[in-house]
Every structure is written in C-alpha cells, then in structure tokens.
Amino acid sequence: MNFAVGFRLGRITTIICLLLAFQGIAHSQTNRISGQVFGANRRPVSEAYVELLNEINTVIFRVKTDGSGRYFFSGMPAGRFIVRVRPFGTDYEEQSQEVEIVTAVGRRNTPDNQLVDVYLRTRRDANKRLDLTGVIFAQEIPEDAKKAFESALVDLDANRLDAGILKLENATKIFPDYYYALDRLGSELLKKQQFAEARKIFERSVTINAKSSNSWYGLSFALYAQDVVPESIEAAKKAADLAPDSPDINVMLGIAFRKGKLFSDAEKALLKAKKLTKGQSADASWNLALLYTYNLNNKRLAADELENYLRVKPDHPDAEKLRRLISQYRSGS
C-alpha cells in the first residue's frame, strides 16, 4: 500500500494570490466535478479517498467515495484541476485525471458540470501482500478466527468495507494475537482516517511481530497523522531497518524527519528513495523540493528536484508554472 502524504509547494506572490483568490471566490459555487471510481470488473470502489488539486498541486478538497463509488466536489472557480484517487489499503494503484472547468460562454458566466469517472489499476505486487520484507509470520490460528479473517478478505475485495472490518475485529476478538488480521485491520482503519484506532491496532501488531515492516510503516503514518512526530520517526526508522530498499518507507521516513526538523536526515532518506527508484519517484523529488525551498535554503537543488519531478510527470497541469518557478530559482529572484 501506499501511504504517501500530499504537501504544498509555493513561494512567489502570484502563487499566494492564487490561493487567496481561490479561498475567497463566492460567485462560482455552482461549478461541479463528480464521478464514480471503479476497480476490477467495473466494480465501484467505496470509501476511497478522492482529492481535488488546483494548478499548483495543492489539495483543496478531499472526500471519500460512497457505497456506490461516487464522489462530488463543488464550489471551484474556472481553471484546470486534478482529480486524484488514493485507494489506501487496497490492491489498487493511485491514479490521477485532469479536468478543466470552463465558465465563460460568450459574455456570460455559465456554471460548468464535469463528469470524471476513474478506473483503477491493480498494483503489480497485489499478490505479494504478506509483508514488505517477504517474511512469512507463522501462527497457529483457531479455525473460527481463520474463517472470520478469510471471510473479511472476501468482503474487503468486494469493497464491502464495513462488513470486512467487523469480521477482522471479530477475528482479533477470537484470537487477540492474530497478526495478519491486526495488520490488515490497521490498514483499513487508516483508510477510514481513524488514526487513533489504527495506532492502537498497529501498536499491538508490532508487539506480536516486531519484524513487520508493514505494521511499523502503518504505525508511523498513524502517529504522523496525529502529529506525534518523535514516535512517528522511530516507527519509520524501524520500518526502514526491516525494509531498507523500500522507496515508500524511505519517503515516509524523510517526511517524518522533515516534520521533526531533522532536515539533514530528511534529505538522506528522500535521496535514498530517489536513488532506489532511479530518479522515478515523483514523491521523493517533490518532498526534496519542499525541503530545499523551505528548510535548507538551496534554490539550485530545489530547481533540480522540480525539474526531475517534471521529467517523471511531464504532462502535469502545473508544468508551466513549475517551469517558471524553476527559472526564478535559477536566476536567484
């Protein structure tokens, strides 16, 4: 799974003005973007996070799909946006789609309604979910707990998330030390943004299986979301010790280090994530650009990372604005 976290990038006056203008617009409340999120075999994906990003890659709205996989945004002005689906805790890849709101028709402003359906792709590693380390954790599981867990997986795969979570909880009541049930339950609770509950589950999980990089990773994310930074860093470090070649874990570690103001360590972790992906991690370059811009005061390196970000995502709708920002960094203005 991918726990990657979205962050803002901006520095020049025009960008600040764009943000203020967006927040203050009241005349475009009828513009809408809506759609449905589908998974395998066109099955609707419920409880998936859907984010709306503006032209400077800032998340301005975040919702979750309903039981039919539907989502809805309203109140945005005219402009170009990105609809990003983050199917946290599932076997699907994150996916983004561009959309443009156009309100000017002749001399009158006419509300625009855009329909954007998103079809998710299954991750390549979807059949290798045991753990990022590939280590199998052996337990003797009571038969009724095992049946509850297996039934939960059927529900979760069919996007019956609430039913699946209830069965996972039942499996852990029958057998409180059921590692795989705890690990999956923690992931599903993160998906529902129940961070305090997820934290408790992952704390149990890592007590039972201290070699689970996945559970340490989930614990780090839950702690980070609750702004418990030192503990988030320690959990991410343990995940990285267990799975040092995981780009996602190294990005998480870098993000946690940055929030803890350990900027040199953040740089090392993010550079490692970038190296592990041979420069193909947009998340690593984006967060390095933030680090160099706001914390290490190195515009040249920030420009390098933004350029790499655009190499990875050449069709990004913010490309022209980011190129201008890169040019300003290069010129020292």
Structural summary, described in words:
The chain has twelve helices and ten strands. Helices cover 49% and strands 14% of the residues. The protein is α+β, with helices and mostly antiparallel strands. Residues 1-29 and 125-135 have low confidence and may be disordered. Strands 1, 4, 9 and 10 form a four-stranded mixed β-sheet that branches. A four-stranded antiparallel β-sheet has the order 3-2-5-6, with no helix packed on it. A hairpin with an 8-residue loop joins strand 5 (79-86) and strand 6. The radius of gyration is 21 Å and the shape is flat. It has helices spanning 13-24, 143-157, 161-174, 179-191, 195-208, 213-225, 229-242, 247-259, 263-276, 282-294, 299-312, 319-331, and strands spanning 32-38, 49-53, 59-64, 70-74, 79-86, 95-101, 104-105, 108-109, 113-115, 118-119.
